Each structure stands twice: as C-alpha cells, then as structure tokens.
C-alpha cells in the first residue's frame, strides 16, 4: 500500500493511539514489526499516519499489546476502516489541509463544545460575516481563494443542521456580539442568525457579559470534539501555525476544566437568548 502524501489529523490520531498502546506494553517498534512480518520503519510510518492499517492488524496489535479495552479496540478499528469521503474532500488541494481536518473532526464528533471571545463561532457565522473576516485578515485575497473559504465555512454547519445534528454548545463573549466586522446590517443579520439557530435547537448558546466579575479567560479560544469514548476526545485550539489538534490526556482535562469555568461565568441559555435579542434592538 503506497504511503500517503498527507496524513489527516484523524489518521495521525489513529497512529498515535497505536503507538501509545505499544509503549504501554513496553515494546519497541521492531518487536511490533516482527508480529506483522514488517519492518520498524513501516511501523513508524503507520504510527505517524502515513501508512494505512487494516482492521485485522489493529486487532492483532491490540492483542499483542495485551489491550483488553474492547470499546477502544472497536473504536480504533472503526477509525482504521473508515472510508468516508465527506463534502470537505472537494476542497482538498484548494484550501490548506487544516480546513479539511477541522470539518472531518466535527463530522465524527459525538458532541461539540466551543469557546469564542472575539468573533462569532464559525458554525454560527453568516456568509457576509465570514467574508468580512477573511477579507480583513487577508487583504488583497483574490475571489478565487476567498469564495472557497466562505463556502467551506457555510458547509461546516451541516453538522448542527443536518438530519442527525451533533449536540453543540458554545460560550460567546459579549465582545464577539458587539464587534462590527462589517456594517450595521451585517451585524444585525448575524445576531438574528444566532437567535434562529437557538430557536431551531441547533445550538445551545451562553453569553459571557462584559460586567461579569472574575473572568480571566479573555485569551481563550477552543473547540472540544467528543470522541466515541472519552480517551478519543480531541481539542482544537488556535496556534501561530494554524489550528493545533490536542489529544494528550492532561491537556484534554485542562480544556474540560476551562470550559466548565467559563460556563460558570456565563449567563444561562434563556438569559443569553434574551441578551442577544436586546442587542438586535440596539442596532
């Protein structure tokens, strides 16, 4: 099987989990390779996500590593055998890989939780709002590059609007609701869009108001994607090089704690809906 030229975040995660099982068993790559009649280099490529792995090999490795967690093994088999070619594939080679990785993570998530301070969350943005952000951040970007970004952002919303919507909770700071990324009409349409998503049951939205005491999380922005079991949860955070995918247990625990702390500083969902409604009246 030829090596992949690019390993998706999901393929990398599968390899990471197989490496963790091997290391927990105290085995070297060459010892795992002997079991599969392979080489340590091929094991390394598999654990980096550049080489595929069959369900039979996943189960053989898990047995050799003395893993008895059937739920984890089944989840890894599902990851290894998944052949989903989602809507995001049409943007491969058109947009940077992180766009596809983010959409794929959302597609496979059991639930989504998000914290956004300065902008409206991408899953709730209108096309005009998204276009204004991309135009500002990338001045001079040609339409041939701008429009695919806007289209991609709009299509991501299928995870909360589709036939089997993913439960989605987001904590939004008042700042993101008041900042005008474009004009008054764009801002009002954006607030009405959020209200519509709330009313349709597509999103649970809670607002952190400016006057909330003891809120030190203004620099936090993150998404938390639930896996088929908690060990396979994934965190997504902005980084200087783009979106960073987080899978370390300690870091995931920290993200869960941060979400709860910020949620405690937020208005409840009903009060948040009323708060956003009042803002629309001010525009």
Short summary:
Strand 4 and strand 5 form a beta hairpin. The mean pLDDT is 94. Helix content is 51%, strand content 11%.
Strands across the major sheet, in which order?
Answer: 3-2-1-4-5-6
Q: Helix/strand-derived class?
A: alpha/beta
- What sequence of helices (H) and strands (E) makes up the elements? HHHHHHEHHHEHHEEEEHH
Give the N-to-C terminal Cα separation. Answer: 58 Å
Summarize the main sheet. Answer: 6 strands, mixed
Number of E-state strands: 6
How much β-strand is present in the residues? 5-15%
Shape: elongated
The averaged pLDDT comes out at 94
Radius of gyration from CA coordinates: 21 Å
**Number of discrete helical segments:** 13
Low-confidence stretches: none
Task: Please give the share of residues in helix.
Answer: 40-55%
Oligomeric composition of the shown chains: single chain
Explain what the structure shows.
This protein is of the alpha/beta class. The chain contains 13 helices and six strands. The chain has helices at residues 9-24, 29-35, 40-47, 55-64, 70-81, 97-108, 127-137, 143-155, 158-161, 174-178, 184-199, 249-264, 269-282, and strands spanning 112-116, 168-173, 204-208, 222-225, 234-239, 242-246. It has a six-stranded mixed β-sheet with strand order 3-2-1-4-5-6, with helices on both faces. β5 (234-239) and β6 (242-246) form a beta hairpin. α2 (29-35) crosses α3, α4 runs antiparallel to α5 (70-81) and α11 (184-199) runs antiparallel to α13. The radius of gyration is 21 Å and the shape is elongated. The termini are far apart. The mean pLDDT is 94.
